[in-house]
Amino acid sequence: MKEPVPVILVVEDVLSEGVLRHILDVTRGRFLVTACLGKEGFGFIRKNLPVFNRVAPRSPFVILTDLDNNPCPSGMLREWFSEPLHPNLIIRVAVREVEAWLLADRRGFARFAGIGLDAIPRDVEAIEHPKEFLIGISRRGHARIRGALVPREGKSARVGPDYNGCLLRFTHHHWSVRRAAEASPSLARACRALAAFRPMTDG
User: Fold this and answer.
1) Mean pLDDT of all residues in 61-76
2) Would you call 117 exposed, middle or buried from its count of C-beta atoms within 10 A (0-12, 13-18, 19+)?
């Protein structure tokens, strides 16, 4: 077996880190995560993309960000950074948010949350605001799911008190990357890019 490829992760938040680590875990030991940067929203990624690109020849990066309200991933990335990206810089965009990748395993999430399968559309990438949608359907789920994911009345928080913890438990113990990739083209592209990656050394 070949030695795993050391990579540095760059993500928007804790949930994205958990999702990306799980995706890498199912690549059968191809990658060794040496560090994880970011967790400060997309602004950190956009600001530091030129730095990551310069460092990439010596240390590969795997970057995960959300599309949010941008029209398309390629246009968003061109706006962020107009120079050619080094082949060791793997940047993937979740359409429209990483929550859509979790919802793409419709069977897994419906069972985990205690909701009907029909509550989750087949085309999860057409959901305009996946995080809000996920919270909305969780209101119909098990009491423990509602308590974790749904914001409490009278509070200013946009998510429930254990939003990340609950979804990370789902990610690591119930989420099927294979099933989700069948329903999410952006996740499928990310999986293919990681499976095909071979680090390039300059010189």
Assistant:
1) 96
2) exposed
